[in-house]
What we know:
Elements: E1 3-9, H1 18-31, E2 35-44, H2 46-57, E3 65-69, E4 76-84, H3 85-95, H4 99-114, H5 122-138
Parallel strand pairs: 1-2, 2-4
Antiparallel strand pairs: 3-4
Amino acid sequence: MSSISYFSEGVIFKLPQKKVINCWIKDIISGEGFHLEHLNFIFCSDDYLLQMNQQYLFHDFYTDIITFNTSDLPQVIEGEIFISIDRVQENASSHNVITISELYRVMAHGVLHLLGYDDHGEDKVLIMRRKEDSCLSLLQL
């Protein structure tokens, strides 16, 4: 049975409309021909995610998201997506969008990474942004 779980580390945060978001995430995954096994979203602070970035990716900078694919099977989604609520809020402000909209974009971004999309290089960044927009268009709130 497929499942999506939500946790917080170092921040007080509750995702609104979890049932709607769960359906949306599952639609993104099935729309790409994948099957969802289990997915954890962990909402955290900048400092928490910086520490993870340093420890696991050997990067010494803040980021809004880190995605870990834990699936051993092709076409099966299983993983953990860590999202800095601090960074999402700052990005929303700098892009002049509301925080929850930016959060949904970042959540879609993490799922797209698990689906095999990459954002290293100009061309891939453009493809990723288009895919994020496509994912957001599926969200019915």
